[in-house]
User: Fold this.
Amino acid sequence: MFNKLVSFLVLFVTALPGIAQPREAIDFNGGWSFTLEDDLQFRHADFSAVNWKTVSLPHDWSIGFDFGEQYPAGNAGGALPGGVGWYRKTFPLAEKDKGSHYTLHFGGVYRYAEVWINGKYLGKNINGYLSFEHDLTPYLRYGNEQNVVAVRVDNSLQPNSRWYTGSGIYRDVRLEKRSPIHLLRAETFITTPEVSADKSTLRVQTVLNQAVSGKAGKLQLKLQDKNKKLIAEQTLAFSGSQFEEEISLGTVALWSPERPTLYDLNISLLDNNGKIIDELNYQVGFRYFHFDEQKGFSLNGKPLKLRGVCLHHDLGALGAVFNKSAAKRQLLIMKNMGVNAIRTAHNPPSEEFLDLCDELGFLVQNEAYDMWAKRKNKFDYHLDFKEHHIDDLVRFVKRDRNHPSVFMWSIGNEIREQFDSTGIAFTKNMTEVVKKLDPTRPVTAALTETNYEKNFIAQAQALDVLGFNYKYFDYDRLPTEFKGVPLIASETTSALQTRGVYDSVHDTIQLWPASSQDKFVTNGNSDFTVSAYDNVAAYWGTSHERAWLEVKKRDFLGGIFVWTGFDYLGEPVPYPYPARSSYYGIVDLAGLPKDVYYMYQSEWTDTEVLHLLPHWNWKEGESVDVWCYYNNADEVELFLNGRSLGKRSKTDDQLHAAWNVLFEAGELKAVKIKDGKAVQEVVKKTAGKPVDVIVDTEHDRYAVDGLTDLHFLTVSLVDEHGTIVPDSDMELSFIPQENVTVIGTDNGYQADLSSLSTPKRNTYKGLAVGIIKKQEINNVGKILIKTNIIEKEVIIK
Ligand code: GAL
Assistant:
């Protein structure tokens, strides 16, 4: 079919036109009107939406609500409402732009997005996690007449997910203006067929929307490094609509998580006078990798254990709204812990998230689906799967195959068809589709059935790498059961914790809930918390230490993907409502690390780690478990008010030093000892009453581009000596003084029910986070942080 189409186009070839109009991406996020009412009249161009609310995109209407038990998504879906929402935007186009080609690009709409331009219906997008675009050109008006885009978003069928999805146009929208003859981004494929120390090649394949005749087309390829130094330039004349060219290069710097070196590739379509008609820009990374069934994963010729985390798409108090500075903050917090790989559980992420992974250096296992034709929830994508899964898979791979960070495709997570023979055909078919579009990356799936005879997805023998979730006690069976296929621990752990909560440690890992017989934990805490000693897990999981120890010692496992890097909205195992967000994160929903963060940091980085837990505010004489995460040392000595409580160290089976101490107010000190010498120390003091707050504005660490930056203010409630007070929480008000808006607040507590968009938040175990946006980017902002006894003005630069 495709070939026929191409030859058809070649018969009607065009010479390149005179109008040279380089592509322009027009930011289309501002000035939308929004309503939660639903009426088809809203699609008409002449409908007046003056009474609607003005919003900026990206936008998630669900996150603005208080949490509630009444919503059909349930607490698994985040205890927030869905519904139907309409968006409208009016915009003019200048007379001189007549003749240009316009498409409207949506980064992601949850869910069922129907779009109209000037009353004309453009279609309905089904998959809530994929980008889509519509050609507006034939319906546009120029000059004095306005254009109106109307979008109906329908997230009313609930439940449709096992986690919080958000509702609305929750990723960026842009209007792309380009020349009538232009390059097709989705058909452009950039690969690096050869990568070695002294010789690499870059292959560029691209397609024009129309064929050009008799070598009339000129394409220019330009590769530059980040200092704008030209690495290669090639201009070629071609005819027809398809173009393929290889550039030979000498030594290039390789891309890796440690050194994510990128180059800029510009592909320009030129007219006969050398004027640019259209162009596409990409960041290119040169890297090669290999999965070996015995030795695991290697990158650029060197063994590399994948130290991965799974991440859902929400950004805490922002809900599903994608924001580059929030995502960058999240990724840098992961990087600092030693993470080198991300699994995008269980859906395509935003395009900008992948740009960040390219730039910051993360290997991405990019996942398509959480279910196929068999449902996990009544109204989930299984309803649309049969009709749409191939088209959606094609769009997904074409969208993301030019990112150097993406190194594997996953066609599914814990798919129910692994237990039934229909799984074979689906797996074969989808793998074939992916491979056709991208032969350079392995295809995998995350499986749970570890018995070959019973696993129909594995039986398809189509996957390049098999991922197994949980069941670490089966790991040694896998290489014989699935002979000759590389393996990864695609999901592990599912340990549960609330930041800052410490219940005494048990001899065994507590399973909450205890087994598949129970939906919830039966003997949990009355305040819906879970202890942050690494000692509690869902029954299918285990502690962080155990899971990592099991993966670490097996070379044949390419790596680990811990469930999860951050807490996320929804799936609050082990509790019913009012719990409304997950307990699985190594970092809480507000972005504040739980203690186990430092276990990973001690194992996964060279950063000097010495982290002591818990806080030091207990009842006199109470027996307290004291743990210490450390690295680069032989042992740790613990002192209570100057008296040594002994030296302890980690063991082959335990990644922390541990003591049991009878509480006495004062000072608990851990000293790290290497070769008999004290090399580092850390102190926990008993805190008095809260008298002040300390505010870390973070923005020097995480700001992105000056345009969409959010500022995350971490507020610590402290006593007169500056010690964080863990047991006298207070309500904080974030009160704008100058040039700021409060976007949201959070404290990481999974059962806090007030809306995450409000400017008031209780501290939780002494900490809370305010998310602030400046109105005028170039001016400083001022905000007042207030409790009933404390007031602090904070300047935001
Ligand atoms: C896994 C599943 C994840 C999440 C996790 C919670 O089985 O793949 O999506 O539900 O359990 O423990």
About this structure: Residues 382-400 form the longest helix (19 residues). The pocket of beta-D-galactopyranose is lined by residues 162, 345-346, 413-414, 469, 491, 494, 538, 541, 563, 571 (CB under 6 Å). The first strand starts at residue 24 and ends at 27.
